[in-house]
Amino acid sequence: MTGLWMGTHPSLPSRDVETQRSLLDLVQDNKALMSQEISRKYGEKLPFLFKVLSIRKALSIQAHPNKKLAEQLHAKDPKNYPDDNHKPEMTIAITPFDGLCGFRPLKEISHFLTTVPSLQKLVSEEAAKEFQEGVSSRETSSNAEDIQRNKKCLQTAFSALMTKDKSTIAATAKELVASAKKDGEQFAGGGGPSNGGKELADLVVRLNSQFEGDVGLFVLFFLNYVKLEIGEAMFLKADDIHAYLSGDIIECMASSDNVVRAGFTPKFQDIPTLTSMLTYSYAPISEQKMNPVDYPYVTLNRAAYSSSSSAILYDPPIEEFSVAKTELNGKEAKATFEAIEGPSIIICTAGSGKISVGPKSEQVKAGHVFFIGATAECILESDSENFTTFKAFCELSGKETANGAS
Fold first, then answer.
1. Which of 21, 138, 261, 302 is catalytic?
2. 56 in active site
3. Is the four-CA dihedral 35, 347, 225, 275 of positive or negative sign?
4. 327-357 burial string, b = 16+ CB within 10 Å, else e?
C-alpha cells in the first residue's frame, strides 16, 4: 500500500514546497488561515486528515476508537495509540475498490455458520447454535430490546472466533481454502443474498495468498463484502469494523492515527480492545454508502456547463470535514468556489489546469496539493480534457457534531 497524507497530523505533516515549513507551523502562526473559531475548537490544528491510498494488498482488519476510548488508549499505550482523537472516516473510490465494511445482516451470518463447516468448527458448534437461536425471528426487528440482544449475540459469536489460538485458526483455514477451491459456485451454500458462492470462494483464495491461514479468512463471513465503482463513497463511524482490500481511494477522516487491528497484518494487534469496542451494528452495506449531491457553493462557467462538468459534495454527518469532487471536462472550463469560513485542501487526481486565489495563480497537475485559507475565493480552470480535483474542507456552521447534535 502506498499513501499520501495531507494535513497537520504530527506523524506526517504537510510542508510548503518553497519554504519547507510544516502546514502545522503555518496555521499556528496565522490563526486566520483556519478561522479563529476552528483554531480555537481544534487546538490550532487542522480538524481533518486527507489521504490518497493505493491498495494492492489487503489492509488490516481494524476499527478506530471513539473520542473517549482514544483518550484512554493513548494514556495507557501512547506507542501504539499515538493521539487522543477519534477517527470517523469517509472513503471515495477513484478506481474500482473492494473491502469488508461493517457486520452483515444477521440472517447472512446465520447462513454462513450453517453452510461453512470450518467457520462453524472455529466458532464452535455450541456458540454457532447459541447465536442462531438467540437472533432467530428477531434478525430484522426494530425493537430496541431485540436490537441490543442481537448485538450481544453477535459480540459473543464474533469474540469466540477472534480469540481462537493462531495454530487452530491456521489449521482450520486449510480446510476452508480447500473447500473454496473445490466447491466454486456451491461454496458457502451458494453464498448469501449479497455475494455468490464463486465470488466468496475467489475472495478466500485471493486473501489466503496474501495472508495465509489468517483469521481474516473467517472474519469475511461476518462482514459485508462491498465493491465501490468510481465516484461511489461510504462513511464509517468510529468503532465500525472494516478492512480495505484493493483499489485507489480518496480518504478523509478526523485528524487521528489511532488504529485497533486484529487481522491481515504483521503489526501490533489488540484483539481484546477490538472485540469490546465495536458497536456490533449490523446492516446491509447500502446503509453505509453515501449519496453525493450537487455542491451549492460553486459557479461553473459556460464552457464547464456545455461540457457537462460537475461539482458534487460528499457530506458525512460530522463536523470535521466534507469533500467536494470537481470534474472540469474540457479546456477553459472553470469553477469558482465561494469563500467559506474554514480551511480547505485541494488535490488534483487527473488532468491539468490552473488554481487562482486572489492575485496568485499556480499551475496544477495530477498529484499537486494546495492549502486554501478561510474566507478565500478559489478558482479552478482546466487546460485539459478532464481536470479532476478533490477538496476537503471544514466549515462549522450548520454541521452536526461528532455526537450527532447540531
1. 261
2. no
3. negative
4. bbbbeebbbbbeebebbbbbbbbebbbebeb
**Region 115-119 average pLDDT:** 97
Q: Which residues contact 169 (CB under 8 A, 6 or more apart)?
A: 122, 213, 214, 215, 218
Give pLDDT, residue 70.
Answer: 83
Measure the CA–CA gap between 285 and 325, rounded to whole angstroms: 22
Model confidence pLDDT, tens digit, residues 196-253: 999 999 999 999 999 999 999 999 999 999 999 999 999 988 778 999 999 999 999 9
- Residue-wise pLDDT for 301-318, tens only, equals 999 999 999 999 999 998
Q: 89-93 and 62-63: which strand pairing?
A: unpaired
The set of residues, in sequence order, having a beta carbon less than 8 Å from that of 389 and lying 6+ positions away, is 325, 326, 346, 347, 348, 349, 364, 380
Distance between CA atoms of 313 and 21, rounded to whole angstroms? 31
pLDDT value of residue 192: 84
Q: Are 262 and 270 in contact (CB under 8 A)?
A: yes
Amino acid at 177: V
Question: Locate cell 469488508: which residue?
Answer: 100
Closest CA to 392 of 327, 324, 340, 330: 324
d(CA 265, CA 58): 9
